[in-house]
Design brief:
By secondary structure, the chain is α/β, with parallel strands linked by helices. Strands 1, 2, 3, 4, 5, 6, 7 and 8 form an 8-stranded mixed sheet that branches. The chain has a 6-stranded parallel sheet with strand order 11-10-9-12-13-14, with helices on both faces. The two termini are about 25 Å apart.
Length: about 400
Amino acid sequence: MNCGTHNGKPLLILTANAAWNVYSRRNLIRALQGAGFSVFGMGAAGSMTGTKRKAGGAKPAQQDEYTRRLEEELGVPFFPLPMMEGDGTNPCKDMALFFTFLRVYRKYRPAAVLHFNNKPDIYGSMAASLCRIPSFNNITGLGAAAEKTGLTGKIVYRLYKTAFRSPKAFVFFQNRDDREFFISRALCPPERTEILPGSGVDTVFFSPDSGAAEPFSLQKSGPCFLFLGRLLASKGCGDFIQAAETVKRKHPEARFLLAGEHNPENPAFLPRETLEQALSAGTVEWAGVQKDVRPCIRNADCVVLPSYYREGVPRVLLEAAAMGKALIAADCPGTREPVEDGVNGFLCEPRNPENLAEKMSAWISLPETEKIRMQKASRRTAETRFSDKLVADAYIRQLSAFCSPAPSAP
């Protein structure tokens, strides 16, 4: 096969919804480079995907901290894409995105393209198909797509089916439920799919001894439960607060920490009043957005994610497991993957704060030896099942079927 090259190496273009999401896969990029590929990046820059820009507002920046890191730390040239609203349905914006993919792919003729998140998966894969370029698409969770019904649902499923019908389109899934969802609806052929261990986790960067610095004060008088992520209703943030209220009646020494973005102007987030009341009552503490999440995780005893949003495999659970923390997660697609009930944590019923409170109380009541056993089991799970090295190996194995990488430098 005649592969597109850059500096004498097969060229790969890796696209995610935002520059930070491309950079978060830096270990995959390094592995691809080490295997003899040259990598370019694409995504939105200047703002996090999913935050809609008000009419007449400033256009997104063409560079941000993560585009610079990609270029300076990894030597990855970055192409800015128009802002992508992950669940947006504006056909004009989507058409513009598709033609951007088409223009870039026709210009650079990459050997293969790697897509992450729904818009790149759909419109990037369509463009690659027209250019007869192999595409490797990663379903990082279905999110709202799983709940689409009626005409909207038919359109979304038709788009996926069109994107993945090319014989050069390969689809990675992060959990078995999402793969079954696609195959049962004939959205992609099963022989061109593979299940990955989520996005994987760097078990060196995230280890029980990492993140020693404390960005906030935590009294060690009682157990600390951590909710880490955007304070979205669909991620079970409200359930976490309600469960905390219940647990505190019996265990007033317990502490409940929130860490992550809160945008009260976005109706998908926890209402401002709910958060303010919980903070005023002392039910929870809020550490805000953390650039380095390791200190938060290290200071916690148990990491909780009662999300009923269709996740791939939540990165926070993998990072917490790698740092040797017990996990409590909703028994839902994606969130259940890294949790072995009773072994390294507990599974709770989704949308059920009472059941979540029972699981938290059950963890508090465990003997110290059992808590230590769970923590060790989490670390072992991260190392053996969810290491990002497993993800890189899968990509390199599938890519080798389409084009041979250049020999690595001695």
